[in-house]
Amino acid sequence: MTTRRANSKPREAGSASAASDGVRYRRLPTGAHGLTREQVELDQRERLRSAMIELIAERGYPAVRIHDLTQLAHVSRPTFYNLFADKEELLLSAYEDIAGRTTRRVGEAYASGDSPEESVQLALREFAELAAAEPQAMTLALLGTFGAGPRALQRRAGTLNALEEIVEAGRSTSLASGHARDFTAKFVIGGIREVSAARLRHGRASELVELGGELATWAASYPDSLPLGLDGPPRVLPRGDSAQPKPAPRPRLPSGRHDLPREDVVKSQRERIVYATAAIVAEKGFSGLTIPEIASRANVSHETFYEMYKTKHDAFLGAQKIGLHLALRVTTDAFADAGQEWADGVAAGMNALLQYVCSEPEHAHLTLVDTFGASPQAIEIRDEALASFTEFLRPGYDLAPAGVEVPQIAAEAVAGGVWQIMHHYIEQQRLDELGDAAPQLVYLTLTPFLGPERAADLGRQTTS
């Protein structure tokens, strides 16, 4: 957003230039200044949005107070409430500002290309330059913000969808019964988001400008239409709860006296707490998680809960770690059992991973969806697990066809793309269909390393 004021240049909320020129939060002059009421309010809104972005980056959304915002932005408390109902409305306004500018500028850059390849390159360059100039604001656009509730995450999803539509416009999309069965655009945006968010979180936004070429090369490895045989018709399933996978029932210890060893009792209690936490978060989100409900569902006392976890956040992280550990284990076992061919191992591992995710819908929701609204620690745990999955792809660099150089960013981007597809199915309550995406996910994973034809052959051989 751009605003003019007396004797000042246009600026964008959250921009690096605004921060450096010393006028980011300067009050408008008192008395006659020639500005209309609408211009004054526009300037005040802009300063408050900038203050929100800065304070979130500094201390996290839950710790930001109205007093902090008004002090930094140099507006009065009554003025704040005249412009925004509460701090969440201000957060969403700041989010809409950066997300809107991102999609507009990326879309304009994409449209200016003379070919699909050039369009991707120009769009990525624009995206990278914006991220480098406004890292705090772009972090908000890509991740939402922790502790802000579902509305911020919904805005995040909307931003990703808008970027996907830009990429999708240049592809020959395959449709079956009204369902978009070509996930390439979603996969590519997921990979770009993953690479970008990782740099932004660690203060390395400047690297994105240099990585733009690598990301463009990776994205260009996918043809503009999906090979035949990978976009089979969607399954027709009954509506309602019966269409969603159900977790296996959890064993419970017998009540009353028993002769079980203490370690078995503790193990059972911890497992019940973990699964109760996952179930509650899947139903209500992290903000709806409470210790009394965890204890009640797990059939343990409050004292037992506190013996194992200090807070509900610790219980969330414990459930997240267990879910990711089990997912990595089943993937590793399937990869190892597939034999010596690396590509066969990747296909087998993908199948096993998707089957595990479908068999544990509550853990899947906690790990793949709710992590983004929980805490920075949850994101760090997720990043470590994603790096472990990325290691399965490393041998692919040496298997590329002669004359094909695989960009170093490919493995990281592919892992982000797989994560985004799984996230999409779970968030859209279509987990029952995730297994049907296995052939296409195998193809999307292997294409940068083996080329589209060989990857498509292996994808067609994959069964869900």
Structure description:
With 464 residues, the protein is mostly helical. Among the domains are: 16-89, Homeodomain-like (Arc Repressor Mutant, subunit A); 261-460, Tetracycline Repressor, domain 2. The chain is built from 20 helices and two strands. It has helices at residues 16-20, 37-59, 66-73, 77-83, 87-111, 116-133, 135-143, 150-168, 184-201, 207-220, 262-284, 291-298, 302-308, 312-337, 342-359, 361-368, 376-390, 410-427, 438-450, 452-460; strands at residues 175-176, 179-180. Strands 1-2 form a two-stranded antiparallel ribbon. Strand 1 and strand 2 form a beta hairpin. Helix 5 (87-111) runs parallel beside helix 8, helix 9 runs antiparallel to helix 10 and helix 17 packs across helix 18. The relative contact order is 0.09.
